[in-house]
Amino acid sequence: MFNMTPVPIEVVDFYDDGQDTRHYHFRLHGLENGVEKETLSAWQKAQSGQFFMLSLPGVGEAPFTFTELPNEQGKFGALVRQMGSVTHALFECAVGDIIGARGPFGKGWPMAAMADQRILIIGGGCGIAPLASVINELIETQNYRQLEVIYATRNSATLMLNPERARWRHFIPLFNVVEDTAGLSDPDYYQGTVLGLLPTVLHSFGTQPDLVLMAGPEAMMEAAAEYLVAYGIQPDAINLSIERRMHCAVGLCGHCYLQDRYVCTDGPTFTWADIRQYQAVG
């Protein structure tokens, strides 16, 4: 039997992080009063790439991925772009307000397969959000042979996870590519698109990456995946996070059908081999 009742979470802090976008930190509420150990344990088992349902009483729910996984205090992060009734209501909340959440849900990134591998990560726009925790985890554990990241967006106003990207640059090669570089004085920002930058990044590997992780606009991911396959990377080595409008998050309502699968339970991460088979992108 599924428990569809949200657990209370507290808005810990937030800051503007891109146009109409904020980076929030939440915390499971009631730890000082003894939140059920099972609830805390379930959230602490969240994996990079999984998502949770954010619940605003009287407004509704919406899915978000973890930018920071829940820690021992039940604190976690999420990048939120204001674009619907739930996010508008959240932007009206103040620090200390209590809202709700359900989760964690879905299938995360294949972390076990990344050990001692050459990994390329590509994020476009808000698509950097489901990749943030896996980048943090890989940097912390150093459990890879090579790691490089491409982050692409339209212009300076839509750059997101700015503090995180500044920190990542101290540990790994990070390629920021912006279509319109007006207002950007940093020479480390490339002008163009992911496809335009891919030859340079792939050449820096010396040999082809063993694994690719992508999240962002589906047209971008489709084009990049086809390029990578032509480059010689196997479709089942290319992993994508697919965004769909999850509603129940437990495979009951059918809002997120992917042919005969559910994005909420079978995803949101899939291989390009799966996506091509189910014609989900494009």
From TrEMBL:
Q: How is the cofactor bound?
A: Binds 1 [2Fe-2S] cluster per subunit.
Q: Which UniProt keywords apply?
A: 2Fe-2S, Electron transport, FAD, Flavoprotein, Iron, Iron-sulfur, Metal-binding, Transport
Which SUPFAM superfamilies does its entry note?
Ferredoxin reductase-like, C-terminal NADP-linked domain (SSF52343), Riboflavin synthase domain-like (SSF63380)
Residues annotated to bind [2Fe-2S] cluster: C248, C253, C256, C264
Entries under InterPro entries matching the protein: Cbr1-like_FAD-bd_dom, Cyt_c3_hydrogenase_gsu, Dihydroorotate_DH_ele_sf, Dihydroorotate_DH_Fe-S-bd, FAD-bd_FR_type, FNR_nucleotide-bd, OxRdtase_FAD/NAD-bd, PyrK_electron_transfer
Top-rank lineage group of the source organism: Bacteria
What residue stretches are annotated with the FAD-binding FR-type domain?
A: 4-111
One of the entry's Gene Ontology molecular-function terms is: 2 iron, 2 sulfur cluster binding
Keyword Ribonucleoprotein among UniProt keywords: no
The Swiss-Prot or TrEMBL record lists the needed cofactor(s) as: [2Fe-2S] cluster; FAD
Q: What is one GO biological process annotated to this record?
A: pyrimidine nucleotide biosynthetic process
Q: Where is the signal peptide?
A: none
What family is this protein classified in? Belongs to the PyrK family.
Query: Can you say what this protein is called?
Result: Oxidoreductase
What organism is listed for this UniProt entry?
A: Photobacterium frigidiphilum
